[in-house]
Amino acid sequence: MKTAAPALDLAAVRAQFPVLEARFGGKALVYLDSACTALKSRGVAATLAETTELWGGCGGKRSTHLFAQEVEGRYQEARRTVARFLNAERAEDVVLTSGTTEGVNLVARGFDFSGTRREVVVGAWEHNSVLLPFLEAQGRGVCVLKVCPVRSGRLDLDALDGLVGDKTALVALARSSNVLGGDLPAANVARLCRRRGAKLLLDEAQYLSSHREDVRATGADFVAFSAHKLGGPFGVGALWGEERALNALRPAKPGGGTVKEVVLEDGAPVPHWLDSPMRHEAGVPNIPGAVAFAKALELLGSWDPAAVRAHAEALVRRVVAGVSRVDGAEVVGDPEALAEGSLVALRFTDPALSIKDFNLYLNHELDGRFVAVRAGEHCAHLLHASLGLGETLRVSFFAYTTPEETDVFLSALESYVREVRS
Ligand SMILES: Cc1ncc(COP(=O)(O)O)c(C=O)c1O
User: Most buried residue, 145, 205, 261, 293, by most Cβ within 10 Å?
Assistant: First the structure.
């Protein structure tokens, strides 16, 4: 028998996010766009401000004065917090990046495709931040892209099995789609990749807001994610990898802080790269961002993971059930897969109804409030094209989202459909 999941103390969670009480043009915010970016807590904002104000001096191992040591200490402590969040063995296995996009680019540009394995397998549900770096690498002639299809709202694992072979260098997959939700059986996929001699990169941008990662259990080679989708600041994220995997990546973003030395060989400068993470962290780092990222992870870590997951699942099921009651609208994907994520995308089956109009309706036609959602193709153009979807409208949740907020959305959906048809 399934035991009841513990409940989140929603009032206490929401109290951490002052913007939930803000009004915009006199209207209250109903924020259902957390898959785009989660709201930032008071603690994250304060940490950013405080670190900028009090620790805004040179750090990053360049200068060695006492202040620099203090600043650097905070930056490295943030790295340790990210490592703990992932259950990584070593803090050095975490490269602090500007987000998922940079993490994936570091792999796509730095990966050694010089051997006999030149194929990269991605899913048809990939976000452009995974698809495009490998498409660009294919354009440069360094690799060949293979796309694993989506079937019934999930990545087609039988097709994946057929695609990963002795020519596969790398498999790069979202662990949870930003349109279809889902929870990829990542440990199984990692075993498949290992058996076939391919590396696995997981995009966990959408996964970690309501799931916990244990990189030792999952067995992937690389994991990329963004702070801002977890309530952390913009412009910071992490690429985790094992020491050997990270050091095998050519420094794809070379610059200050990445070399031990530059020597002259026959009069020509030759760089001697540092080991990871430094070889991948060029330039003066985003120290306030990293420290505030750690703060966000502490808050996320203070909530019971089972409660966070149960909360997201309940919200998804509530919205899926509500949409199914509306003639002319349908959810995109498989309800059970969606329930493993924290978002729902929908489309209209009646041509009289329009995603763009409904989005305007949500912003302008509700009394005293507006509902913030995402309309479009969600940077998942390949998925929309392969499923022939056109635009979809996505509602997405975080720990602070209430069932009542989803009900505001659902009743707006019903009234929009009614008004168009009246
Ligand atoms: C599944 C997925 N992967 C990657 C990204 C890219 O994240 P970022 O823009 O923070 O680099 C997103 C952002 O929406 C996403 O949803």
Answer: 293
